[in-house]
């Protein structure tokens, strides 16, 4: 029997609802600069490309863009404000720890590919009790490239011992789908994250509405890798995921 396929996860919007903490840090920073706070909806549309773009877009949305040299001083301040916030166990999406445990017990190698800085991602996973599930963690600052480039995803697969057929990326946004496509692997999108639009338009191989639907979606892809997209039914989704 073939070894279970590696499963590579995105972090923000997939495993953890990081918007409240990112928003707290960004709005505190904007306040220090005499700028108005951004709304939650605006904030959610800024997440997914790493902290530098989050800060740049946040300042642009709150008045005017920062000059390039201003970004260099503002970014470390943002990272300090964000990293100082204690991890919130309630920010882990429902079903994540149990489903990761189920996949690990079934023998799936598990990796993380996020555009968050690697150290912050590792600390966050550690504080939330999730780090031990991950055999490899690659962040947005680990390589000269970040998602949507395929290199970070391929680096995770290499660190997990290779690039077998059947690996699957699980994410919430366009960068995750594009990185998976470019790496030549399948992609499952969760509908409750920060897709910046309709997640059904992302053309993933599967769209799921609850993290607990993941094992079934992985099995469906394993049995039928060359299929048109099939969505689990939205009406079956819980309402507690903020979707
Ligand atoms: O934008 C970020 O900082 C991280 O986003 P990601 O975990 O969804 O890649
Ligand atoms: Mg994400």
Protein architecture, described:
The chain is α/β, with parallel strands linked by helices. It has two domains: 7-17 and 92-236, Rossmann fold; 19-83, Putative phosphatase, domain 2 (DNA polymerase, domain 1, Orthogonal Bundle), CATH 1.10.150.240. Helix content is 40%, strand content 10%. The chain contains nine helices and seven strands; from the N terminus they run E-H-H-H-H-H-E-H-E-H-E-H-E-E-H-E. Strand 4, helix 8 and strand 5 (186-190) form a beta-alpha-beta unit. Helix 1 (19-32) crosses helix 4 and helix 3 packs across helix 4 (68-83). The termini are far apart. The model is unreliable at 233-243 (pLDDT under 50). It binds 2-phosphoglycolic acid (PGA) and magnesium ion. This is Phosphoglycolate phosphatase. Belongs to the HAD-like hydrolase superfamily. CbbY/CbbZ/Gph/YieH family. Its cofactor is Mg(2+).
Reconstruct the topology from this structure:
Elements: E1 7-9, H1 19-32, H2 40-46, H3 51-61, H4 68-83, H5 96-105, E2 110-113, H6 118-127, E3 136-138, H7 151-159, E4 168-171, H8 174-183, E5 186-190, E6 206-208, H9 214-223, E7 230-231
Parallel strand pairs: 1-2, 1-4, 2-3, 4-5, 5-6, 6-7
Helix pairs in contact: 1-4, 3-4
This protein binds 2-phosphoglycolic acid (PGA) and magnesium ion (MG).
Shape: elongated
What structural class do you assign from the helix and strand content? Answer: alpha/beta
In the CATH hierarchy, the architecture of the largest domain is 3-Layer(aba) Sandwich
CATH superfamily of the largest domain: HAD superfamily/HAD-like
**Strand element count:** 7
What is the C-alpha radius of gyration, as a whole number of Å? 18 Å
The CATH topology of the largest domain turns out to be Rossmann fold
The small molecules bound here are: 2-phosphoglycolic acid, magnesium ion
Which spans have pLDDT < 50 for at least 5 consecutive residues?
233-243
CATH C-level class of the largest domain is Alpha Beta
Number of domains: 2
In N-to-C order, the SSE pattern is EHHHHHEHEHEHEEHE
Q: What distance lies between the first and last C-alpha atoms, to the nearest angstrom? A: 37 Å
Sheet of most strands: 7 strands, parallel
Number of helices: 9
Write out the strand line-up for the largest beta sheet, numbering strands in chain order. Answer: 3-2-1-4-5-6-7
Give the overall average pLDDT: 92
Strand percentage, roughly?
5-15%
The level of helicity is 25-40%
